[in-house]
Design brief:
3-stranded antiparallel β-sheet; single chain; alpha+beta
Length: 180
């Protein structure tokens, strides 16, 4: 084992380029499953430590956030932490905005108690609107616009009539022309 205090990696590195066959594991992102292709990186021949030259890091982090938010899978703890940190929010501030305790955010991020579906969706929406990613926000806004435009513009709902039949309620809207 190499003593890092007496070892200087700068004097024993080998330059490499990440490829599809041998991508660079980007652990610095805070996510365990991010691999980069096409970047130059260095590996210390003595201790194996790696470091990379990552151009356009802001765009990369934005792309990672977009992939996470658009994923159909439930958010993982690492993904929640990534999104929170990308927004520059402390755990306490993030918890307050989402409407949970700081302890709950900690349990989510540590993988001890995944968020309910409603909290998962709220985290994604919160990120979409605050991340500053115009492409992501435009996509979300387009989906909301489609959802809203799907509603018909019928008469305003004046009243609702509910009728009990065989221990089962049936509710119907009553148009303004019949409400009186």
């Amino acid at each position: 084992m190499v003593d890092r205090e007496t070892h200087d990696c700068r004097n024993s590195t080998e330059g490499k380029k990440a490829t599809l066959r041998s991508p660079y594991h980007f652990v610095e992102s805070g996510l365990p499953n991010v691999y980069l292709v096409g970047v130059k990186y260095r590996v210390c021949k003595v201790c194996g430590a790696q470091s990379a030259d990552i151009p356009a890091i802001k765009n990369l982090m934005m792309a990672l956030g977009r992939i996470i938010v658009e994923s159909k899978a439930p958010l993982t703890g690492a993904e929640i932490r990534f999104l929170r940190k990308r927004l520059g929010k402390k755990s306490s501030e993030f918890a307050r905005i989402i409407g949970v305790t700081t302890e709950q955010v900690s349990r989510w991020e540590n993988g001890h108690n995944p968020p309910e579906r409603s909290a998962d969706k709220l985290i994604r929406i919160f990120y979409c609107h605050l991340a500053g990613d115009k492409e992501l926000r435009a996509g979300v806004d387009k989906k909301i616009e489609q959802w809203l435009s799907a509603w018909s513009l019928g008469e305003p709902l004046i009243s609702i009539r509910a009728r009990l039949s065989h221990r089962n309620w049936q509710a119907q809207p009553v148009p303004s022309t019949l409400a009186g």
